[in-house]
Amino acid sequence: MPSGTDVLIIGGGAVGSACAREIARSGRSVTLLQRPETPGEGWRAAAGMLAAQIEATPEDPLFNLALAGRSYYRRNAGALGEAGGRSIGMMESGILQLAWSEAEVDAGKAKVAWQRQQGYRADWLSTEEVQRGWPWLAPAAGAFWAPEDGALDPSSLVAAFRADATRHGARLVTDEAVGLDIKDGKLLGVIGAADRHRADSVVIAGGAWAGRLSHLPRPVSVEPVRGQIAAFPWPEAIPPAIVYGPHCYLLKRGDELLAGATMEHVGFDVAVTAEGIRELLTRVAEIYPALATATPSRTWAGLRPGTPDGLPIIGPEPRLPGLWYATGHGRNGILLAGITGELIARGMAGDELPDEARRVRPTRFWNW
Fold first, then answer.
1. Count of C-beta atoms within a 10 Å radius of residue 219
2. pTM
């Protein structure tokens, strides 16, 4: 049995690796437990968008947390790039959200007014303005423009989180967590498929698999949601862009155009289906007609960790001291990974957390 560690993190994806980095930087000893490469890990299929303003509404409980997530990468992009040996691919080119109906136009204009009143940059673009700036898109009724939103490369980000965590003393171990190791009501660590791992504290950051651990003090409300994605060569004549359409998006990463993504409740099935890709390409072709006859260069799928209310689960387990949750981020795993790591590290240090952290506390599901 390996020697113990202060904190063991289950899950080496974006959220788990971010937690490892932030906790290790605080001076604690950290072990990051990463299962052998598993098809469907959410971060491997993520678009990496930092769409804090695009997806927000006045009633959105995640808005402030999303803004904090975007700010985290602005503060840390340079340090993470140095740690990982390459840029994390920050693209701060803005995000365009197209509107097609009168109702969407009204909603977009209202969102511009609401966000401007709070001091954030946002604009409404007319049909003519959209056509001048993005002539390759299908004519729309207008668009919401968030110039401070953007994207990054999830693979580079995870590599950077892991590298910086290691630089601060974290240890990476490959093993599949099977369950919590508990004796007489006390958390001792984690039972792995290959070994037992002792730890004073455990962070569950296992994504879609978070609720499959044995000996949990109560059910964890996380289920997989499949997203299928297609890639095409990015046209050389078109500048980098990120565009939202009805239930779809497209963006430039490297020399590819990524088009995504479906939302399917099919359990842990990570198969790419002809029906799913056909549905996706139909939606994307509505905003970029040139894709109507194009053939994807590759397709793949990932499993997002979804929760009943669409919000992540971040914070301590009151029934079992030492157990923490950092899971259920759904489509916002990349955007919220860094700030989640900060919240977990601050919580472990006993610091007071911001108000937005209360919205994602684990106990919101357990008032019965």
1. 9
2. 0.96
